[in-house]
Amino acid sequence: MDWRVVDERLIRRGELLLSLGFLESYDLELSVLNFGKVGRPYRVTYMYVVFLAVVRYLFGMPYRQLEGFTRALHRLIPRLPPIDYSWLRRRILRLDLRPYMSLRGYDGPVSIAVDSSGVRVCRCGGWLRGCMVGGRDISRYTSQ
Predict the structure, then answer these.
(1) Is the dihedral of CA 76, 47, 56, 120 positive or negative?
(2) pLDDT, tens digit, for every residue of 121-142?
(3) What's the per-residue H, E or C state across 4-23?
(4) For 82-107, how does the pLDDT look when each residue is reduced to its tens digit (9 = 90+)?
(5) What's the pTM value of the predicted model, to 2 decimals?
(6) What angle, 0 to 180 degrees and rounded to 10, lies between the N-to-C axes of helices 63-76 and 46-59?
(7) Helix or strand (DSSP H, E) at 123
(8) Which of 43, 52, 42 minimizes the C-alpha distance to 95?
(9) How far out from the chain centre does Cα 25 lie?
(10) In which domain, by residue range, is 111 found?
(11) Residue 99 lies in a domain
(12) According to a count of CB atoms within 10 Å of the terminal CB, is the N or C end of the chain lower?
């Protein structure tokens, strides 16, 4: 067993590059959810829950660890509230995670792109598949 390879793989596992573009429409999405609502207002948007579900699924985080992740995000971005693990579990179990199942065992880099239209997860360079530059397909130049 090559310990350098194992060590590097464990270090890369800890790398997480996040695009938090969904925050641009976070307040708007909350105001739409709360418009005409009676009772306690919503604090968490659907896109934030989907984002957390993808992070949990891809990195195999237990729900309590995901609660710690939301606390850390709250310290960095105070608009994002920390969320209780039991509430997260109930909401995540209602989501359809089939699009992300093929990435679970994948050992290469994974990109998580979140924008106002939704969460898109693909293997590194996967969004380039079928792209044409100068009349040539550039997907053959990216690792799959």
Answers:
(1) negative
(2) 455 555 445 544 455 554 444 4
(3) HHHHHHHHHHCCCCEEEHHH
(4) 999 999 999 988 888 776 666 666 66
(5) 0.60
(6) 120
(7) strand 118-123
(8) 52
(9) 16
(10) 18-141
(11) yes
(12) N
